[in-house]
Amino acid sequence: MSDIVDHSRRQFLSFAGKAGLTTLVAQAVGINLGVVDIVRAQTGKRGVEPFRFAIISDAHLYSMPDHKFDQQLADAVAQVNAMTPLPDFVLFGGDVAQNGTEDQLVKGNKILAGLKMPLKLIPGEHDWYLDMGDAWRGLFGDETWSFNHKGVHFIGLNSILVRDFWTEAGMTPLERMTVMEMLESPIPGPWGVHEKQLEWLANDVKDLAPDTPVVIFTHSPLWDYYPRWNFQTSDAPEIREILSKFDNVMSYHGHVHQTLYNRIGNMSSVAALGTAWPWPYPPVELAFPETRMNRADPSIATDGMGTQVIDLSGSFEGLVQYKPFEDSLTPFMRDGFKV
Amino acid sequence: MMTNQMLKIERILAVSAAAAVFAAGTSWARAPFTDEELAEQKAALVESIALGYDLWHGSRADMTTNGLACGNCHPDTAASNPQTFPKYMTMYGKVIPFREMVNWCIENPQAGARLDVNGDDMTAMEAYAFYLHRGKEITPGLASEQTTPIVVEYGAGYARTPTGVGVDTKP
Ligand SMILES: [Fe+2]
Ligand SMILES: [Fe+2]
Fold first, then answer.
1. How far is the CA of A243 from the centre of ligand 1 (A)?
2. Which residues form the Calcineurin-like phosphoesterase domain (chain A) (predicted)?
């Protein structure tokens, strides 16, 4: 296992080198051990060099050998590796595992190691609640991070933290995990990033100029979409407040397993398709209903799943393109949309 | 001001009016159910829904060989569209009932063993899915759009005794 840890860390450090960063500094504050280039962080959006990055999300791997979801994640890796031009790096949006076991996370790490480009991850609830993130951290490092790439400041937060419901109830780790596995579980209540990460975030961005392009990455959306299914982050208003000084913030998230766009203030919000299965659209009105995909056809085994790629321009505009495994997109969504 | 006597008379009149309406085309096999009987019937329904809720979330091992349960893709029974059946499904090439759709999902995405279509477990699955679509318009044949269940404000979606764990403490 230790060489897998080394593999993932080495890969990320070498990515930072390839990206032409001049200064590698392990941030001294809080829980961040990410890579930061202070010089570039202060140049603002005039310093953006156009590039693309891809997102893979929600693999939900089971422990059985040769499970169909293994192949679906492998297909996502192959799809990203075949993109032209190649994305500079890949973000994984959480829920590598279904039941949070180490073997599932190790399997995910092995499949994702097939990517030609570096990878950064944030955790989902399915990765976390068996051992409270021990195996995940061992494989993928810290769950709270930031780095700069070609003039853009990237931030990752762990958004799936809930209040302790298990200690008083005397639940085992397995029972706790089982409660968290059910999307509509009435027990855990709404989750969020909580105080420590809010402080970290405030500190992380305090010296950045307002014209700095910022991308924030979480498992759940940073707006109240459908709280019953935790299609929300309870302290999203605080996060948006901390980031309100910036001209433009892009939020990308997993967890909802569907195409979706929203905008609140200076923050645009884009959801990722999963590689395991699509979630239904919940019974709420959407501000941008045209960003929904077609209803998934259950007779097509991988309909409503896939990957996504985002091209960032020199003026920090993003072209979001969903890359479904099947023909899942409406004509509006087919050629991508600007954020 | 209305006296008790007047209220009683009004009630008698209302009952006889209703009886007259039914007498025209319908006859009762028995007197209407008592409150106690209705409560028992409701309890029996809730018991079936509760069994369906458990089955939907993976309580019966032979319904899957790959770990998937109905709830993986259908939280709160969303996108199961029970009120749109019977309808034509491409995988069968013909019109099928909701129960057959349930069995298709068990046998295909879940790679499990189909349920007896007349068994209590299948009735329970149907009870849960339909209960979460109560009041929705019945639209047989609608196949191109995902419909939504009722909005579940709290709990499991039916009158379940709360577990008392976490935020699930309200009746
Ligand atoms: Fe997920
Ligand atoms: Fe999730």
1. 26
2. 51-258
Q: What is the CA radius of gyration of chain A?
A: 19
Locate the chain A residue with the closest alpha carbon to B91.
A299
Q: Which domain holds residue A257?
A: 16-338
In-domain check, residue A333: yes
* Residues in chain B within 8 Å Cβ distance of A282: 78, 148
Is there a contact between A67 and B152 if contact means CB atoms under 8 Å apart? no
In this structure, what CATH number is given to the domain that contains residue A329? 3.60.21.10
Domain boundaries, chain B: 39-151
**CA-CA distances (angstroms) from residue A314 to A115, A208, A337, B147?**
26, 18, 17, 42
The answer to whether residue A294 is domain-embedded is yes
Task: Specify the CATH superfamily of domain B39-151.
Answer: Cytochrome c-like domain (1.10.760.10)
pTM: 0.86
| Residue A165 CB contacts under 8 Å (≥ 6 apart), including other chains | A171, A176, A179, A187, A188, A189, B165, B166, B167
In-domain check, residue A158: yes
Nearest CA in chain B to A68: B66
The answer to whether the CB of A70 falls within 8 A of the CB of A99 is no
